TrEMBL record:
Gene name as annotated: DUS2L
tRNA processing among keywords: yes
Domain DUS-like FMN-binding: from-to ranges: 15-250
Keywords for this protein: Flavoprotein, FMN, mRNA processing, Oxidoreductase, tRNA processing
Pfam families per the UniProt record, alphabetical: Dus
Residue span of region Disordered: 326-345, 368-431
GO molecular function: flavin adenine dinucleotide binding; tRNA dihydrouridine synthase activity
Protein name as annotated: tRNA-dihydrouridine(20) synthase [NAD(P)+]-like
GO cellular component terms, A-Z: cytoplasm
Native species: Linnemannia schmuckeri
Length: 431
C-alpha cells in the first residue's frame, strides 16, 4: 500500500460539481477565480482516458490528454491543487489505470456512482454501482490502495434511509476521504425537488466530510445547507452552469460580464468553438428571448460567437499574438476531426468512438426553447442529439448511440451521455 496523501480541505468548501460539457477548463478556471475552493472535471469514462498521450501546449501551458489527436481532458497547472478528476467505471483495474494516467496533474480521484443515465447504467457504471455495493467498494478500495491520490466518490440516495446509511458506511470503510451526495433518488429528474432533509442523517452516520449537492441555487443556500445538515462542503452544478459567478460572496456578476470573461478564458485556453458555444448557450437558457440567443444559435465558428458579443477585436488581437509566436490559432476544426473519427469507427463496424459523437453533440445547433431543452436534458440517449421537427423536439441518433439506437451497445464500449462523456475542448490541433 502506498503512503496516504493529504486530502483536500472540505470544511466550508464551495465546489463546482462535475458537469459533462460544461465543466471544461475555462469554466473551472472561472469558478476558481470567483471563489470556488475546489472544481471537478466532467466524468471521463475509464477507457476514454487510459492510453492517452500527455502533451504540454507551448503557447498557454495547458496540458492535453490526447487520444488519436483528440483532447479527452485539458487542464492547466494553476488548477491542479484544487482539481478533482471524476472517473466513470465499472471495473477496478480500469479505474485504477485511468487514475494513474492523470495522477500527476490532479489532486483527487472521484468515482461517479450517481449517474442515472442509460449509458452509465448499461455499462454497470454510475448509479448502477449503488445496486452492487461490493463492486462499488472494490473499485474504491483498489483506487485508495494504489492510485497514490486521495479518493472520493459521488452518490445519489436511495428512498430507503437504512439502505442509504448502510451503503455510506460501507463506502467510508474503503478509506475514501470525502463523500459527495446528490440528494435525489436514481429515478428523480433535476426538476423534481431534492431531499435536503436527507443530508443530516448521512453526515451523522460517517466521520468523513460529506459534500451536499442538489438545488443549491444561491450563494446564501450554501450557509443554509451547512446549518441544516452539518455538511462540510457544498457542491453546485446548474447554478454555476447558468452563471459561474454564483461562487462570489459579493453576489453574482451580470451575465454579459460573465459571457465576455468566459470568451476571454476560452481564447487563453484555446477552447474549441463547439464547446464554447454550447456553454454560452447554456448561460442564456433562462432567457431564450434575449437578442443574443438566436445569433448565438446560428454561430458556426468561434469568430461568429465573438461577433455576437462584439468581441472580434479581442479575437484579432489574440490571433495576432499567437501568429507572432508561431502558435496555433485554430479554434474551429474539431468537427472535421470528429467526422473523420466517426467515419473510421463506422468503417470498423463499431460504435463510434466517444469523442466523435461528443463533438457532434456539442456542435449541434439547438434552437429549442428553455423548457424543452431542460425537459429533454435527461432523456437524450447516448450518442444522440435533439433536433426540432415541425416544432417538436426529437432525438436524432448518431452512430454510436445506445439505447434508442438499433445496435445494442457493448457494455464495455465507452459512449457519451449527457452526464457521462469526455471533455469537449477537443481536437485542437497542436503546433
Ligand atoms: C450539464 C450537466 C452535466 C452533468 N454531468 C455530471 C457528471 O459528469 N458527473 C456527475 O457526477 N454528475 C453530473 N451532473 C450532475 C451534477 O453534478 C449534480 O449532481 C446535479 O446537477 C444536481 O446538482 P444541482 O442541483 O446543483 O444542479 C451533471 C449535471 C448537469 C446539469
Amino acid at each position: 500500500m502506498q503512503p496516504q496523501p493529504q486530502p483536500l480541505n472540505y470544511t466550508n468548501a464551495a465546489i463546482l460539481a462535475p458537469m459533462v460539457r460544461i465543466g471544461t477548463l475555462p469554466v473551472r478556471l472561472m469558478a476558481l477565480e470567483y471563489g470556488a475552493d475546489l472544481v471537478y472535471t466532467p466524468e471521463v469514462v475509464d477507457k476514454g482516458i487510459v492510453g492517452c498521450e500527455r502533451v504540454v501546449n507551448e503557447d498557454n501551458g495547458t496540458i492535453d490528454y490526447l487520444s488519436k489527436g483528440v483532447s479527452i481532458f485539458r487542464t492547466h497547472p494553476s488548477e491542479k491543487s484544487r482539481l478533482v478528476f471524476q472517473i466513470g467505471s465499472a471495473n477496478a483495474d480500469l479505474a485504477l489505470q485511468a487514475a494513474l494516467t492523470v495522477a500527476q496533474d490532479v489532486s483527487t480521484i472521484d468515482l461517479n456512482c450517481g449517474c442515472p443515465k442509460r449509458f452509465s447504467i448499461h455499462g454497470g457504471m454510475g448509479a448502477a454501482l449503488m445496486e452492487e455495493p461490493e463492486k462499488l467498494c472494490g473499485i474504491l478500495k483498489n483506487l485508495v490502495d494504489n492510485c497514490g491520490l486521495p479518493v472520493t466518490c459521488k452518490i445519489r440516495i436511495f428512498p430507503d434511509r437504512e439502505r442509504t446509511l448502510k451503503l455510506v458506511k460501507m463506502i467510508e470503510a474503503t478509506g475514501i476521504k470525502a463523500l459527495a451526495v446528490h440528494c435525489r433518488y436514481r429515478d428523480e429528474r433535476p426538476r423534481e425537488p431534492g431531499h435536503w432533509d436527507r443530508f443530516k442523517e448521512i453526515v451523522d452516520a460517517v466521520s468523513i466530510p460529506v459534500i451536499a449537492n442538489g438545488d443549491i441555487k444561491e450563494y446564501a443556500d450554501m450557509a443554509r445547507i451547512r446549518e441544516l445538515s452539518g455538511c462540510a462542503g457544498v457542491m453546485i452544478a446548474r447554478g454555476a452552469e447558468a452563471n459561474v459567478s454564483i461562487f462570489r460572496k459579493e453576489g453574482r456578476l451580470p451575465l454579459m460580464d460573465i459571457v465576455r470573461q468566459y470568451m476571454r478564458r476560452c481564447l487563453e485556453t484555446r477552447n474549441h468553438h463547439s464547446n464554447t458555444k454550447y456553454c454560452v448557450m447554456q448561460m442564456f437558457v433562462e432567457d431564450t428571448k434575449s437578442p443574443y440567443y438566436k445569433p448565438l444559435c446560428e454561430a458556426k465558428s468561434f469568430r461568429a460567437v465573438c461577433k455576437v458579443f462584439d468581441m472580434e477585436g479581442e479575437l484579432d488581437a489574440w490571433i495576432k499574438k499567437q501568429e507572432e509566436h508561431g502558435w496555433p490559432t485554430d479554434l474551429d476544426s474539431a468537427p472535421r476531426k470528429a467526422a473523420e473519427s466517426k467515419e473510421k469507427a463506422a468503417k470498423n463496424g463499431k460504435a463510434a468512438v466517444a469523442a466523435a459523437a461528443i463533438v457532434e453533440m456539442a456542435t449541434t445547433d439547438s434552437t429549442l426553447g428553455k423548457r424543452k431543452q431542460n425537459d429533454l436534458k435527461d432523456e437524450i440517449p447516448a450518442g444522440a442529439s435533439v433536433v426540432e421537427v415541425d416544432g417538436t423536439p426529437v432525438t436524432k441518433k448518431h452512430a454510436g448511440g445506445d439505447g434508442a439506437s438499433s445496435q445494442p451497445t457493448p457494455a464495455d464500449t465507452p459512449q457519451p451521455d449527457v452526464e457521462t462523456e469526455v471533455e469537449t475542448t477537443t481536437s485542437i490541433p497542436l503546433a
